[in-house]
Design a protein that fits this description.
The strands form 7 sheets. Strands 6, 7, 8, 9, 12, 13, 15, 16, 20 and 21 form a 10-stranded antiparallel beta sheet that branches. An 8-stranded parallel beta barrel has the order 22-23-24-27-28-29-30-31, surrounded by 5 helices. It has a 6-stranded antiparallel beta sheet with strand order 32-33-34-37-35-36. Helix 4 packs parallel to helix 5, helix 7 runs parallel beside helix 8 and helix 10 runs parallel beside helix 11. With 690 residues, the chain is of the alpha+beta class. The longest helix is centred in the C-terminal third of the chain and has 23 residues. Helices cover 20% and strands 30% of the residues. Bound molecules: (2R,3S,4R,5S)-2-(hydroxymethyl)piperidine-3,4,5-triol (DGJ). (2R,3S,4R,5S)-2-(hydroxymethyl)piperidine-3,4,5-triol binds next to loops.
Length: 690
């Protein structure tokens, strides 16, 4: 059950999720103060939560941390969530409570500034089937104001003797690097200034008291649903409190709101888990499946993508040859990647000219699409609608359509520039050709790529330049939303040079994310582990590619590559033309095995194990175990399985051996791993007489 209750006498709002509770209240000055985020409380208990502020310790101190949105008014010295400059020179918002609305699991608490006709709504939403608390903020003004910062929400966690911060960092081909570090006293900024959520930091975080483990201990976490620049500032005060505030945009961006305007931030959700990092992740997976992904319950197809096989050489002949082999191994969706259009024969030209390259596709795309359909697969296509090469007809016709600043060079990254989708004419152009392309060819799947960061983000002659950082992203969202509405069968994979745009915002209008351009199965284990902290397996696109891996030159067995990729939405990306007949047969058997376990992996509950992962769905349990390079003498401990029925008997579907649930959870399962480096195993268990 979830519910929202208001206790008028104490001015307390109590939000309950199925197993957690979030409480805020109003203090004597109408300030919305944070009171509790953690285990369940009754309303009777919640109204007794202390909210009095101790007097400042000195004339250099201010209010204690712990407000629902930190403004600049009065003695507040924490990083502000809301920085507003009024035309009369006044800064900050002095809260005056206007009332609230409660609508099922939704709560909106309304405020205005004490002096100006300027309103702030704090929004909360809880669901009956998710432990996430969703929060966002709306501003409304009747005077022109400058917004210097408008975060979605500020979050507070209880006072603990110390704090540990978990977050993900990385770079291109090294996304989702999990870091778990002591939280420094002071301010820690997690941010992207790249116009994308970025490979370098992912917009989520977890805090614990330093004592949580994978399965035990309290964890507080947050994830921002935004695909552009963002900033989260985590504060650990010398007096021992921890809070974070976060939202869209990086430091230094400002924009004006005109009288009558309303501004709504993205959603910043929070999850409290009493059962460790794994418990936090499982709650996020459930939330993403139930309230973020547009089509959560549809099995993700096994796809084949020829990018690593042909690079910029895509042409009708090689795509048809690869399609035949993809069908042979069991692919259900054939995706043609880059270089099918315009003069795109390398990354130097053609982006923006979205018609089939006549030399490579003399009869257009129809013959290839017909062949893919004849082979029994759906057809998908790569696009990069936000970008242009200067060497393109589009750029020659519209050099003013890109982000640029007068007198500054237009910095090229991957030989391309960013189209300013904040401009309505550019957004209309992008929507028009995509709508036509998808409609005319009945395209089932788009891989929507975005291969560079923003620079010189200006819009000469345009309104309020910094807004383009926000409006560009909103425009991407709106084009995707319109395409999905007009083509209900269309599925979209989010990609930004691999996983540079992995976040809850893009996931709410796409079906999966291309996790990384690094397809080395050994490296992927860590990348996927980082991904799984927040995002579910069904949204994690994972390909099996060639050995040696084109990026790292590492050699790994085909089964290892499969077993790692089978932990997500399986795809194949190798050059099948160079695979032996035996390898193709082995691949076909492994694809068939994946189709068998697909519901368990994609729709089940995930437990990260020491060197593998367990997925549980109904009476089925799937364990994927991977061992990297072998160190002589290093013991291989059995994998202790989780959350089984201790009294249940589990039959190994491949060997017929029967295990007791209690034994699998205490002594563990010793997977039968072949000798040598990069050994792996798939174990399929089914509970008998469930
Ligand atoms: C970056 C993507 O991550 C790759 O998979 C591929 O689509 C290339 N772009 C194509 O340019």
């Amino acid at each position: 059950m979830s519910s929202v209750t208001f206790d008028a006498a104490s001015r307390t709002y109590v939000l309950r999720t199925p197993s957690t509770c979030y409480v805020l209240g109003l203090d004597d000055g109408d300030v919305p103060v944070h009171l509790h985020w953690g285990p369940e409380l009754t309303v009777e208990q919640a109204v007794t939560l202390p909210r009095e502020q101790a007097p400042p310790a000195s004339s250099f101190d201010g209010r204690r941390a712990g407000e629902e949105l930190v403004t600049e008014a009065g003695a507040r010295f924490d990083p502000p969530s809301l920085q507003i400059a009024f035309p009369d020179g006044v800064r900050g918002v002095d809260w005056r409570h206007l009332g609230h609305t409660i609508d099922g699991g939704g709560l909106t608490v309304r405020f205005r500034d004490a002096l100006h006709p300027f309103e702030v709504d704090l929004h909360y939403r809880v669901h009956p089937d998710s432990d996430a608390v969703e929060r966002w903020t709306t501003l409304r003004t009747e005077v022109p104001v400058t917004v210097l910062r408008c975060d979605s929400a500020a979050w507070s966690v209880p006072a603990l003797p110390g704090y540990r911060l978990s977050h993900a960092v990385g770079g291109w081909s090294a996304e989702n690097g999990l870091r778990r570090v002591e939280l420094a006293v002071g301010e820690t900024v997690l941010t992207s200034r790249r116009g994308l959520s970025s490979h370098h930091a992912n917009p989520w975080l977890m805090l614990d008291g330093g004592d949580a483990t994978e399965e035990h201990g309290e964890v507080w976490s947050g994830a921002l649903a935004w695909s552009g620049s963002w900033r989260v500032t985590v504060t650990h005060t010398p007096s021992g409190h921890a809070t974070w505030t976060g939202g869209a945009g990086h430091e230094g961006l400002t924009w004006r709101l005109e009288p009558g305007e309303e501004w709504t931030t993205p959603v910043f959700s929070g999850v409290y888990a009493p059962d460790g990092f794994g418990g936090a992740s499982r709650r996020w997976h459930e939330h993403v499946a139930r309230h973020v992904l547009p089509v959560p319950d549809e099995p993700r197809p096994v796809l084949y993508n020829a990018w690593e096989a042909v690079g910029f050489e895509a042409a009708e002949d090689n795509q048809k040859e690869l399609a035949a082999l993809a069908a042979r191994v069991g692919a259900e969706l054939f995706v043609m990647d880059d270089a099918w259009f315009g003069g795109r024969t390398s990354d130097r030209a053609g982006l923006g000219d979205w018609w089939p390259n006549p030399a490579r596709f003399p009869q257009g795309l129809t013959p290839l699409i017909d062949e893919v359909h004849r082979l029994g697969m759906r057809f998908g296509l790569w696009v990069e609608p936000e970008m242009v090469n200067p060497d393109s007809d589009l750029y020659r016709a519209h050099p003013d359509w890109v982000l640029h600043m007068p007198g500054r060079p237009r910095t090229l990254l991957r030989n391309q520039l960013v189209l300013n989708l904040a401009r309505q004419d550019v957004a209309d152009w992008a929507h028009k050709w995509l709508h036509k392309l998808v409609g005319e060819h009945g395209i089932d799947f788009l891989k929507w790529d975005c291969n560079r960061a923003f620079t010189e983000a200006g819009w000469p002659g345009g309104p309020d330049q910094d807004r383009l950082w926000i409006e560009h992203v909103r425009s991407v969202y709106s084009i995707m939303d319109r395409l999905r509405a007009d083509h209900p069968h269309l599925r979209i994979e989010a990609c930004a040079g691999g996983g540079g745009r992995t976040d809850l915002g893009i996931m709410s209008r796409t079906d999966q994310v291309w996790t990384s351009d690094n397809t080395d199965a050994h490296d992927r284990i860590a990348i996927q582990r980082g991904f799984s902290q927040i995002y579910p397996a069904r949204a994690m696109a994972a390909w099996v590619t060639d050995s040696p891996n084109p990026l790292t030159r590492r050699r790994t067995p085909l089964a290892f590559r499969f077993h790692v990729a089978m932990a997500g939405a399986l795809g194949l990306g190798g050059n099948l033309l160079e695979w032996s007949s035996a390898e193709l047969d082995e691949a076909a058997a492994l694809v068939a095995a994946y189709k068998d376990i697909r519901p368990v992996v994609q729709f089940g509950t995930q437990h990260r194990l020491e060197y593998g992962v367990q997925h549980t769905f109904g009476d089925r349990v799937v364990v994927l175990a991977w061992r990297g390079p072998v160190a002589h003498g290093a013991p291989l401990v059995p994998l202790r399985l989780r959350a089984l029925d201790p009294l249940g008997r589990y039959r190994d579907e491949d060997t017929g051996r029967v295990h007791h649930g209690a034994v699998l959870m205490s002594s563990g399962l010793a997977p039968d791993l072949p000798r040598g480096d990069y050994a792996s195993a798939l174990v399929r268990l089914r509970k008998e007489n469930p």
